[in-house]
Amino acid sequence: MTTLAVNKAELGATLALPDPPAPAPGQARFRVERFALTANNVTYAVHGEDFGYWHFFPSGQEGLGIVPVWGFGAVEASAAEAVTEGQRFFGYWPMASAALMEPVAASRAGFTDGAAHRAALPPFYNRYNVATADWGSEALQCLFRPLYATSFLIDALLSASPVDTLVLSSSSSKTALGVAQAARGRQQIVGLTSPGNRAFCEATGYYDAVLSYAEVAAVPGTRIAFIDFAGNGAVRLAVHTALGDRLAESHVVGDTHWQADNIAQLPGPVPALFFAPTVAQGRVAEWGAAGFDARLAAAWKRFAGTLGWLRIEEVNGRHAVADAWADLVRGRIDPAVGLIASL
């Protein structure tokens, strides 16, 4: 019983469900070896319904959802031609110790999960890549490989913007840190965070200025883009109100502070929802697949060289992972810590 399902009405609460059965013809059962737990996973749970994240790994029980996570898995039993026992892959797994999939479209690079319930879901999440060291250690890959791809895409979106200042809420989040480091030197980078995380954000060296949420009126710059990683409606309203005509763009990326009510009516520019798969498809069309991969790899290498602030911690077993998840939902994780979990 090591599949962790969360209560959709109370995201910090979990219930153990049975792992999947042995594979039927065309299927393979994977052992989920290790995965990261970050604020990004909370966003998946918050948007489980409206963005369809609950659909990737259906719990089969009303009111319960299985949170998707990024990490490594190994084939432990295969009745599919596409994969063989012992192969290891990086990809999108359930928060569980095992997963059942239907591997198709296999190549030397990996495979796609061809399960019918995933056919209409974004293909970005359905592709599994053969495990390699190209992205550095496996812990770093679990923590940053998908998140940094999002940071890279946000930076690509903003690089051509005529703004002089980027303001990032939830500036201690790993995706925000990736954007700040990538854009540093091109535009002025201002972080908004809670007082407890201010010193951490300053110590990374990615921000030109770090302010508390109460100091929004002190944001510098004459033409500003707001990138909202927090999803806190009160903060968003405060930023739009305080910056006034200086606010040229507003982008919504995540909902890590999901408990706060969102406020629909805002002064200034209408916030644009950032959805990474859509932006990625546009950049691949513009740069080509090889060009996209080359740009992403170069940007990741630059960022990875700045991660001296990161402290990796491991949590193992159902109860420890459930406790870590509850702390993450409640915002109790040190931003300098990278959590690597295993069930």
- How many domains would you count in the coordinates? 2
CATH classification, class level of the largest domain:
Alpha Beta
User: Average pLDDT across residues?
Assistant: 92
Structural class: alpha/beta
Based on CA atoms alone, the radius of gyration comes out at 20 Å
Could you give the order of the helices and strands? Answer: EEEHEEEEEEHEHEHEHEEHEEHHEHE
Low-confidence stretches: 256-261
As a percent range, the share of helical residues equals 25-40%
Number of strands: 18
Large-scale geometry: globular
End-to-end CA span: 10 Å
- Which range does the strand content fall in? 25-35%
Give a quick account of the main beta sheet: strands, pairing sense, barrel closure: 9 strands, mixed
- Which architecture of the largest domain does the CATH hierarchy give at level 2? Alpha-Beta Complex
| CATH topology group of the largest domain | Quinone Oxidoreductase, Chain A, domain 1
In DSSP terms (H or I, runs of 4 or more residues), the helix count works out at 9
